[in-house]
What we know:
This protein is mostly beta strands. Helix content is 9%, strand content 44%. It has one domain (5-115): Bacteriophage SPP1 head-tail adaptor protein (Thrombin, subunit H, Beta Barrel), CATH 2.40.10. The strands form 2 sheets. The chain has a 6-stranded antiparallel β-barrel. Strand 2 (13-19) and strand 3 form a beta hairpin. The protein is globular and about 45 Å long.
Amino acid sequence: MPRRIKTIYIAKKLDEVKYDEYGNQIPQYSKPKSYEINVQPISSNADIQMYGESATTIQKAVIDYDKYYGEFKEFDIAYLDGATPKGEKVNGANANYRLNPPRNQNKRIVIYFERLKGK
């Protein structure tokens, strides 16, 4: 299967938090940045077994350690499957995936993207 590099966007979760009128936390995100990354639905038995029933909502990217180390964190959000930040009034409003903790694997980093509920 040929590699399919896609343009995706990722917005970093900021340490800053705002609150709505009911006292609920509203996470804040940086302006989304575009990346050219090969992102695919998970397909290996190990990945499917790890995520179980939610496996259909997970996508995966394997990226270069030297190029991306420290670039992504758990709870950053992503725009996949054609979603873009165009027209957003609030950073992250159009995002449809959340990053699970990046996993360092020697010269590569594996990132799992989990679809946000309702997106």
